[in-house]
Amino acid sequence: MIFIASDHGGFELKNKIINHLEYKGLSCKDLGPYELHPEDDYPDYVKPLVDKVLVKPDNRGVLLCRNGVGVCMLANKFKGIRAVLSWNTKHAASSRNDDNTNVLCLPVDYIFEEEAINTVDVWLNTPFGNAPRYLRRLKKGNL
To answer: Which has the minimum average pLDDT: 53-62, 101-110, 114-123, 134-143?
Structure first.
């Protein structure tokens, strides 16, 4: 399952990504916000998404905020979350292949809509490389 959330800064792009994923027939759950509230705070949406991602190893999450940094820093505070702040397809693919990331954070103010959607698609479709060196590194980091 794919879970997606944002703050006010990512609200519009979040909804476009959800529409794209649903059009492709993918299971996607919107964790908010459901209405645009300019004063909302990203921590209110990160924790519920993290909790859902951690339920099953195959679950993935997508978080959006203006620069992507806040949601990424907070998500990575939770054991079992490997969040990446990504801005293009090559970087997103590398994060999945090499580091088995399970949460993608997008910087809404620094990425165009088409690139964001392509980045989500590539990230979702790139498997973990499972190479011994990648496994060793994740184990050393207790990730």
So the answer is: 134-143
Q: Is the model's pLDDT at 130 over the cut of 90?
A: no
Residue 130 CB neighbour total at 10 angstroms: 9
Domain count, the chain: 1
- Phi and psi at residue 75, in whole multiples of 5°? -60, -40
pTM listed for this prediction = 0.96
For residue 81, give its domain range. 2-140
Question: Long-range contact list for 17-26, CB < 8 A, 24+ apart?
Answer: 17/62, 17/64, 17/116, 17/117, 17/120, 20/117, 20/120, 21/120, 26/2, 26/124
Question: Which residues, in sequence order, are CB contacts of 112 under 8 Å at separation 6+?
Answer: none
At residue 86, φ and ψ (nearest 5 deg) are -130, 155
Find the CATH number of the domain harbouring 100: 3.40.1400.10
**129 pLDDT tier (thresholds 50, 70, 90):** very high
- pLDDT computed for residue 143 by the predictor: 66
